[in-house]
Specification:
By secondary structure, this protein is of the alpha/beta class. It has helices spanning 10-19, 21-28, 44-59, 74-83, 94-102, 142-152, 172-185, 194-203, 215-218, 220-235, 237-244, 253-266; strands at 64-68, 86-91, 109-114, 127-133, 153-166, 207-213, 269-277. It has a single domain, classed as Vaccinia Virus protein VP39 (Rossmann fold, 3-Layer(aba) Sandwich). It has a 7-stranded mixed beta sheet.
Length: 279
Amino acid sequence: MIVPRTPSDPAAVAAHYDRLDAFYRELWGEHVHHGLWTTGRETPEAAAEALAARVVEAVGEAREVVDVGCGYGATSRRIAEATGAAVTALTLSEAQAAYARRQPVARGSVRVLVQDWLQNDLPKASADAVVAVESTTHMPERERVFREMARVLRPGGRLVLCVWATSEQPRAWEIRHLLEPICREGRLAGMGSLQENRAWLASAGLAAETDEDWSREVARTWTVVARRVVARLATDRATRQFVRDASEADRVFALTVARLRLAFATGAMRYGFLVARKP
């Protein structure tokens, strides 16, 4: 697993998302995750909805769902409204939680908690499905993260994962100039390969059902984001001031976007969609 030279902790992750709250919502909207381009003709918004739809489909007929790292709660709301499920959604960010709690839910329910997944107090075997969309890389002790997911699942329950991952054997320059800086600048605890993620699932006692590499289908996300960052820098004075301010640790995100675009282009980064069941 690639880990940052400067370790991240839950407080740093929370501060990152709180500080960049408006920036993230303008760049991504409610879905703070990649888009899924299956035809290549989708709008960015439709691509983001398409990825969320695949997650909802994998959740199936679950009645009690846990969304680990829910962001602004868009996927949680989609699950609740599509299935009628009661969704418990966890985030570290007070800003994200405040936004998510203001959004109406037409069917089912969404309960938003500001809570560290590794400090959660959810009952054992209480969920039919656990969902984690691009959130596990923010968490240390990855084997423990997956064990907690297995603990919360009922027998027969599903874990649905969208994961940022590295290639199986990244080159030295990719680690030095792309993967390690992406972890450090993005407040990630570390990135494992898809094979490592499969091993963590197995070590938690979960049986794989779906294992898909979506790297090609999601890579366009970073071209879209890069264009939006450039447009915002060109038109918004406050953004330019933020990026120029050396006291703003999170201003480096503008550079991280370029690294992510290149990491997908070289194959240094991969994107996995994994579904596993608790026996």
